[in-house]
From TrEMBL:
Naturally occurring in which organism (per UniProt): Ciceribacter ferrooxidans
Superkingdom classification of source: Bacteria
Lineage: Bacteria, Pseudomonadati, Pseudomonadota, Alphaproteobacteria, Hyphomicrobiales
Protein name: DUF922 domain-containing protein
InterPro entries: DUF922
Signal peptide (UniProt feature, chain positions): 1-26
Keywords in alphabetical order: Signal
Length: 205
């Protein structure tokens, strides 16, 4: 399931929970990676153009973005029948997040003002994407806890339906929370950048 959103940055969420009949461990497994795309240029116009040309592309929006977080949920659930009831025997939720961030290769050749602006922008992009990854981690743990806490059903088919419904509900809440975060971030972008720039300029007069 892929979700398209975000006016300023982009998170592309592929939320897939594979409910397989195999043994599972008891802890949420989280794996995070970071990759970079290089941009060049020595002017603000160069940087804008490079970000538009080289930023991560998402089919859902048909555009490139200055940063992205790709999120994939997965996992295993087993079922146990006893006493005429079926319950979840074990549940494992896995989460893979990949942050895609820009790296400016010409920073040392640029003027001090542009370098200051870039440092503020790139740090904000990273913070933003790290927060998307953290939101996903919170929901991965919530999903695992919820699956383990499901009440037994009369048969395993009904239990599987409960697992699927719970998964769908929590993933949907996750997607809405991610979009809510984007709306707040977009609305506060200019104020946030001014605050960061003022802070950095005072530290590096």
């Amino acid at each position: 399931m892929k979700i398209a959103r975000r006016p300023r940055y982009l998170v592309s969420v592929a939320a897939i929970l594979a409910l397989l009949s195999s043994q599972a461990t008891a802890e949420t497994i989280v794996h995070k990676t970071v990759s970079y795309f290089q941009i060049g240029g020595t002017t603000a116009q160069d940087l804008d153009r490079e970000l538009e040309r080289r930023g991560p592309y998402t089919m859902s929006t048909g555009a490139r973005h200055p940063g992205a977080t790709r999120i994939r949920f997965g996992g295993d659930v087993t079922y146990v029948e006893s006493g005429g009831r079926c319950r979840v025997g074990s549940a494992k939720v896995t989460l893979k997040t990949q942050l895609v961030l820009p790296k400016w290769k010409n920073r040392k050749r640029a003027g001090k003002d542009l370098a200051l602006i870039w440092d503020a922008l790139s740090s904000d992009i990273r913070r933003h994407e790290e927060r998307h990854a953290e939101i996903a981690r919170q929901y991965a743990r919530k999903l695992e806890t919820s699956l383990k806490g499901l009440r037994p059903q009369r048969e395993c088919l009904a239990m599987e339906i409960k697992v699927a419904e719970t998964t769908s509900r929590i993933i949907d809440a996750h997607d809405k929370d991610q979009m809510r975060f984007d709306r707040v971030e977009a609305a506060n972008f200019e104020k946030r950048m001014i605050r960061i720039l003022n802070y950095r300029s005072k530290r590096n007069p």
